[in-house]
Structure to design on (221 residues):
């Protein structure tokens, strides 16, 4: 049996891709206005439909325009290191469980975060051996753009058998966009979920547990 972990909201309290965007905006403040307008638009659309991911992709494309592959990777490493060592950004018990299951070959991390950024962050946390499903960039003349966005039903569609047939022992997530994964999991643990996420899980009829962040603890789950 395999444990499946979302990254943002579970292994990182901060949104890793948003942290890259914010870091970039500090160096290119003239992009704050268009990104801010899109962020307001994101807050006005449903988290369960296709529109919010489209807005988020547009935000990333605008913020990272002009970056080369080398420039992006330097930025991703810097942000990953900062987040991994930021006090309160991880729950040691959840990270400990991910480390242990990864060592045993029974850990899948699936995230909308771009792949290289996710790899850097997991390395900083010492999570080694996990299978990673993440979003991918392609680098064009004007900068990186998503070639694949690993979110919502895409996460479930990428699962290999037997995971796609319900062999997920536990799913750790904070988002209702992971309902397709929850339907394939024996146990679902919502990490510090929003009221909207709880309502959507309640309407789905999928059983779940709730875990609050414990940033003051040390040890393994």
């Amino acid at each position: 049996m395999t444990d499946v972990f979302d990254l943002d909201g579970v292994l990182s309290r901060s949104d890793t891709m948003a942290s890259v965007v914010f870091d970039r905006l500090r160096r290119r403040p003239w992009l704050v206005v268009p990104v801010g307008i899109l962020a307001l638009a994101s807050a006005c659309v449903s988290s369960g439909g296709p529109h919010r991911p489209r807005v988020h992709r547009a935000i990333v494309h605008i913020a990272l325009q002009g970056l080369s592959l080398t420039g992006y990777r330097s930025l991703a490493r810097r942000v990953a290191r900062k987040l991994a060592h930021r006090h309160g950004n991880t729950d040691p018990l959840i990270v400990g469980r991910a480390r242990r299951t990864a060592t045993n070959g029974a850990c899948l991390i699936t995230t909308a975060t771009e792949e290289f950024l996710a790899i850097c962050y997991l390395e900083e946390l010492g999570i080694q051996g996990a299978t990673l499903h993440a979003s991918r960039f392609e680098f064009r003349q004007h900068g990186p753009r998503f070639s694949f966005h690993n979110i919502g039903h895409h996460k479930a569609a990428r699962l290999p058998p037997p995971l796609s047939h319900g062999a997920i022992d536990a799913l750790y997530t904070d988002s209702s966009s992971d309902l397709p994964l929850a339907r394939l999991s024996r146990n679902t643990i919502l990490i510090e979920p929003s009221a909207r996420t709880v309502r959507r899980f309640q309407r789905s009829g999928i059983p779940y547990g709730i875990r609050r962040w414990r940033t003051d603890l040390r040890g393994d789950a």
Observations:
- The radius of gyration is 17 Å.
- The longest strand covers residues 131-140.
